Structure formats: structure tokens, C-alpha cells
Amino acid sequence: MHEYANDAGLVSSYFNHLQEEFRMPINLKGRSFLTLKDFSTREIQYLLDLSLSLKEKKRSGIRGECLAGKSIALIFEKPSTRTRCAFTVACIDEGGHPEYLGKNDIQLGHKESVKDTARVLGRMFDGIQYRGFKQSVVEELALYSGVPVWNGLTDMYHPTQILADFLTLKENFGKLKGLKFVYVGDGRNNMANSLMIGSAKMGIHFRIAAPGDLFPEKGLVEECQAMALETGATIEFFEDPVKAVKGADAIYTDVWASMGEEDKLAERVALLKPYQVNSKLMEATGKPECIFLHCLPAVKGNEVTEDVFESSNSKVFEESENRLHTIKAVMVSTAGNI
């Protein structure tokens, strides 16, 4: 971690440092952030390192101006705690104006097409965050708005969450490459998809422990395996969670029924009960230092027990805070005054 003597030019100095370190220009200006598939290993590492710099800046009480004069649209079709708060505070911290647009505030996809909404908002705002259901909607916003669009969550992907997860891993282990990372639960959901993509990009040995019927879609697995060949990552799938977690540095889980799937909860509880992260599963890693992660909110008693959630191995609130710093890095690097 490099420190700089004053706030003036802190972020721009760090940008210059990163570009020199990688010996190539890294310029994300104007880029949308829809899935980690669109970003190289170096670009992801760049965002993580910038996040650390911005976290230091925040904790030092330094207010920024990277988004001064910028207005940001925050579109939410799904409710949110961490994503909404992180985007709002990140924007304000850097001098910008966030505007919340709930599902009843605009006509997105109802009286007005996504394409038309994108063209309207793109003329008024400097960036757009979308949290909703269909990946096609965030992609269409990016295609027609003319400004950076950031995926705050869709049914397929949750890329801003992965940056926070990886920042937490880096803070705990000092590295990403070579770590053993296990996701336990519904292996088809947006978190499993995105963690698999991110792990393949960053050289992490990634495993999914899930019932065979809940393994990820074959096409995405093949894409990630191709990425993994370039970084030294491995991707494996297990139906036995105890075998999957052996040697794990970190165990990750998520709710068993995502938003919009509440009608499937009873079915999922019956199917996924053997995949609960409890003290026995943590012990099965053989590593007392193994950490527990969860994107939250958690249903304690389902996917994780109270004792694991509240243990010293649980880093869920550090992970939650890191949503702010990583989202800020995405915003300032793609739409900021750098």
C-alpha cells in the first residue's frame, strides 16, 4: 500500500503509480461495468488497488472531488441496503449528486422502452446504476445511454459485490492468486456465477458445493474454464460440501432463495439443508484461519448458523463496508474527474 502526503492529487497520483506498475495505460473512462467478463485481470487488480487508496482517503477524513459536478442516476427495481447506501455515500463523498429512481418513479420498460429511457437519462446524468432483474436491461441501458452504466445486481451477475469480496480476501490474506475459495449453496445464482468469473480472472482456485441440479450453466462454466487457463485458476464442482471445503481459505454462501424466488423457499430449504455453513463445515476445512463471507442479508439458521455468522472468522461486515470503497473506485475511474 502506497501512501501520499496530502489529499491533493491522491487519487490521480495513485492512478499514475498503477499505470507505471503495470507498464501499460489503464484508462477506464467511459466504460460500463456490467460483468467482470468485460475486464482484464490487470483492470480488476487496478480497481482493487484504487479501492484501497480510496478507503484510506475515507478513513483519513478526506473529502474528494472526483465526482464534483456529476449527477448519478440510481435505478432500483429491487430493494437494497448495501448497494443503495454504497452508491449514495460514494457519490456524495466525491462531490457528486445521486438521484434515487425507484420502480414507481420512472416508466422504465412500462410506458417507455428501456432504449428511450436510456437516451433520456443519458442526456441528464453522467452515470447510471441499475439494480433489477434482467441482465438485458442493464445491457440496453449501456448500449443507448452514452454514459457509463454500472450493474448493481441482476439475476445473472453481481459484479460490484465481487470487488468487495475480493478486497476483503486481499486484506485478510495479502493476495488473491492461489487462494482456495469455496462457494456453498445454490450454484446457479448470480453470486455463484460472478464469483466463478472473478476467481477465473484472478487466479483463485474456486469450488462450488451444490446439488448437481444447481450447478452453473454449462456455457458459463466453459467460458470461465477458458479464462482460468490464462491465470492458473482451477474451477471444480462438488456435491459433497465436506470434500469441497477441504483446505479452503474462505467459504462463501448466499440466501437459498433469491429475490423473486420466495415461492421456492420451502423446496430450497429441503434441498440445501446439507449445505448449511455451520461449525462442522468450517472445521472440515482443516484451517482455523478460514474466513466466512456472505453478501448479505443472511437468513441465519438456513444457509449459515448464528455461531458461524458471529464468529471471529466471519468477515461479513468488513465485506459489507468494502462495497462502499469498491463501488467508489468503479464510479470515479469510469465517470470521474481524474
Explain what this protein looks like in three dimensions:
The structure is a single chain. The chain is an alpha/beta fold and 338 residues long. The protein is built from 13 helices and 9 strands. The chain has helices spanning 10-22, 41-59, 82-93, 114-124, 135-145, 159-173, 190-202, 218-231, 241-244, 265-272, 279-283, 306-309, 316-335; strands at 71-76, 97-102, 127-131, 149-153, 180-184, 205-209, 234-238, 250-253, 291-294. It has a 5-stranded parallel sheet. It has a 4-stranded parallel sheet with strand order 2-1-3-4, with helices on both faces. Helix 3 (82-93) links the parallel strand 1 and strand 2. Helix 6 (159-173) packs across helix 13 (316-335). It starts with 9 loop residues before the first helix and ends with a helix.
List keywords for this structure.
338 residues; alpha/beta; 5-stranded parallel beta sheet; 4-stranded parallel beta sheet; 13 helices; disordered N terminus
